[in-house]
Each structure stands twice: as structure tokens, then as C-alpha cells.
Amino acid sequence: MAQQPVSLPAKLINGGVAGMVGVTCVFPIDLAKTRLQNQRSSQQVYKNMMDCLIKTVRSEGYFGMYRGAAVNLTLVTPEKAIKLAANDFFRHQLSKGDSRLSVFKEMLAGCGAGVCQVIITTPMEMLKIQLQDAGRLVAQRNVAVIPALKFGAGSTVINCAYSLGPTTHIRRTSALQITQELLRTHGVQGLYKGLGATLMRDIPFSVIYFPLFAHLNQLGKPSEAENAPFYWNFASGCGAGCVAAIAVSPCDVVKTRLQSLSTGAHEETYSGVMDCVSKIVRKEGPAALLKGAGCRALVIAPLFGIAQVVYFIGVGEFVLGRFPNFRF
């Protein structure tokens, strides 16, 4: 099957569909990643990803694993649209006079896409993190010593919220309420807290992912005139996404900490990227910068694998073929 050029409208539809399907599938793991990254070594509520998901379901119900998903589902389409359109634009500009892009130019195109996407990514992540982390803060307060309950001389009972039921109600705050409060108190820049850290994460990610996927996918092509098979597209997307996700995981930890507006008792606050890195390394050790790396790989790998499946199937082309007069 010959390689057919994909129109920009079809790319945008494919990116939006892939984003929504992917977010729905892996969002609970993303929630676990955020909570693991935000908890400090001295106040650990969750031991690992599975422990976090089990405790979340017990204390917040099944839908507690999807806190903040609405924000992602709403903004993932414009985020993917900007990322894909920007990558295509920069690739086109850099390919003038060249029959094939060099790896360096592919990395430059990915860098440009990463810079552009933070317009949507930063506020989307900012709102999502507040909603995802609310349950961790309540759980941290619930795991406390209750001196009033005594059995014998001087003994105390540890109150574990997950064995006795939650003792503190999780205040339900919507993304709209958080947005309104941020705009009222800090203006538009309030939604872009952690912009520097987001750039530090998204630029290297795109620089690594786009060229790596292109070259992995190229290896699976029977010939230059044919597409790689379905399974190779999926595996290339998963592989490139996994490598890129792990590579930028320390930046994601810093971004998550900086964008958390609420902190638990005795938890550090940070004034900027360097202050955050310095305090994490000094107080929690260098390994803390890799918190949630496994969860992040489990989130990103299938997300980009699903994206390649959607492109392979041609959802956007099918929609445009059924509605030829549809324009946007």
C-alpha cells in the first residue's frame, strides 16, 4: 500500500480521537503518577502504583480514579491539534531544498512543536494536578495518631483511613472553580504557573519522541512505497513514547511539585525550578526525581501507541470522507 499524504484536518481529528481514547484508558495510572510524585519521603501514604489505586478506590470510589479527567478530555484535542500542526509546519519549513530531513532537523521540528503545545498543556496540567492530588492530601490527614483512644497504659491506636473508612471528606472542587479563583487572584499568569518546568519537560520529550518514532517505524516498512504494518506502528509509538517519558521524568516531577497549589502539613513549597530541584535532592535524595517514572511510562507508551493505531485506521480520513462538505 503506497504512502498517502494525510491532510491537516484529518491529522487534527486523528489526534483528538487518539487523545480522548488514550486519556480514558490510562488516566487512573496518570492519577497514581501525580500522587506518587507529590508525596514526600517522610509522609508516604502510597507504597507504589497498585497501592495508590487500591486505596483511591476504597476511599473515593471507582470514579475517584478519574478525578481531573474532564479537564484532559476537554483540552486534549486542541493540545494535540497544536502539537501535530506545529510539528508538520516546522518539518515543512526545514525540509525546503532537502529530499529527506536529517535527524537534527527532525529534532528541531519536535522542539518547535514542544514550545507551541505548552499554550494548552500548562493550564491543562495545572488544573488536572489540583484535582488529582486532592485525595492524597485528605489521605495524608486521615492517617494520624489518635491519642484519645487508649488501651492500657500509654498505648495509642493508629487511625488508618483505608481500613476504617475515610474520616475527612474530600471537598469536591471543579476545574471551573479553580480557574475562576486563579484568574481572580493571579490573573491569566496563574494558569501558567510552572511554565518553565513544562517547557523543560515537553521540549526534550518532543525532541526525543518524533525522530525516534520516525526511525523505529521506518525499520518496519517492507519498502519505501509501503507503510509499516499495524503492529509495528503500535510498537513504535509505545517504544518511542516510553523512552521519551522516562528520559524527561525528572522534569515532570519538578513540574508536578511546582504546579501543586495545595500542600500537606510540613510539606515543602518551592519558589522556582532550581529551588525545587535543590530541595528535592537535598531532602529526599536524587532518586526522588524519578518518582512515578514507571507510572509515566505506562501512561505515555499506550497513549502514543493508540495514537498510531488511530492514524493507521484512518479515523480522520473516514470522517472527512463521510462528510465531504465539513470544513474547519
Automatic annotation (TrEMBL):
One of its GO terms (biological process) is malate-aspartate shuttle. It is a multi-pass membrane protein. Pfam families: Mito_carr (PF00153). Solcar repeats lie at residues 6-93, 101-219, 228-317. The chain crosses the membrane at residues 297-320. It is found in: Mitochondrion inner membrane. InterPro entries: MCP, MCP_dom_sf, MCP_transmembrane, Mito_Solute_Carrier. One of its GO terms (cellular component) is mitochondrial inner membrane. It catalyses: L-glutamate(in) + H(+)(in) = L-glutamate(out) + H(+)(out). GO terms for molecular function: L-aspartate transmembrane transporter activity; L-glutamate transmembrane transporter activity; symporter activity. It comes from the Eukaryota. Keywords: Membrane, Mitochondrion, Mitochondrion inner membrane, Phosphoprotein, Repeat, Symport, Transmembrane, Transmembrane helix, Transport. PANTHER family: MITOCHONDRIAL 2-OXODICARBOXYLATE CARRIER 1-RELATED, SOLUTE CARRIER FAMILY 25 (MITOCHONDRIAL CARRIER: GLUTAMATE), MEMBER 22-RELATED. Belongs to the mitochondrial carrier (TC 2.A.29) family. Responsible for the transport of glutamate from the cytosol into the mitochondrial matrix with the concomitant import of a proton (symport system). This is Mitochondrial glutamate carrier 2. It comes from Ictalurus furcatus (Blue catfish). The lineage of its organism: Eukaryota, Metazoa, Chordata, Craniata, Vertebrata.
